[in-house]
Design a protein that fits this description.
- There is one protein chain.
- This protein has 1 helix and 12 strands.
- The chain is mainly β.
- The protein has one domain (3-159).
- β5 (52-61) and β6 form a beta hairpin.
- Residues 18-22 have low confidence and may be disordered.
- The structure holds zinc ion (ZN) (2 copies).
- One zinc ion binds next to loops.
- The site of one zinc ion (ZN) has 7 residues, from loops.
């Protein structure tokens, strides 16, 4: 069964893992809409990953630049590298592939000294309460598809603010 939540995100109930009594805990979000800070739509229908159009992003680090497509499925770190190459444990700056605007950063990630949690809005006008966030270091799986406001609270609690 396929359903959309109130933000227009597609919910796929995951039934593989045993106890399915609590539907919410077994559902994964799929991003259907994602935008750069200037409002460009970055969903790439030409590059589906695991059955869903991915999020197209331009990346740069000293000496390397390219484009990649991220999976739109929560917790799925599959990606398609369209050009350039990624290096495990190395940070990239992330930009809109259409207008070149850099994606905003929310907070630091604790995996590396200079790592950032990049934020991508699910609405054309960036709303921190309706966004996804993930670390810009290749191989770091910190991030979440839940609302960023929740993430901020979570991180503050963890760091004892
Ligand atoms: Zn843009
Ligand atoms: Zn990280």
């Amino acid at each position: 069964m396929v359903q959309f939540d109130k933000d227009g995100r597609l919910i796929i109930p995951i039934t593989k893992r045993g106890k399915d009594k609590d539907k919410d805990k077994n559902a994964k979000y799929v991003i259907k809409k994602a935008y750069c800070p200037n409002g460009c739509n970055i969903i790439d229908v030409n590059h589906p990953i695991n059955g869903f159009p991915g999020l197209r992003i331009k990346y740069k680090r000293p000496g390397v630049e390219g484009e990649l497509v991220l999976s739109a499925i929560e917790g799925d770190f599959d990606k398609i590298i369209l050009s350039g190459s990624l290096e495990e444990g190395v940070k990239d700056e992330l930009y809109c592939p259409h207008c070149g605007e850099m994606f905003k950063k929310l907070v630091s990630c604790n995996c590396k000294e200079d790592a950032d949690m990049v934020i991508i809005g699910l609405t054309p006008h960036l709303d921190f309460n309706n966004a996804i966030t993930f670390c810009n270091v290749t191989g770091c799986h910190n991030g979440s598809y839940v609302k960023s406001g929740d993430i901020l609270r979570h991180i503050r609690l963890k760091e004892g603010f």
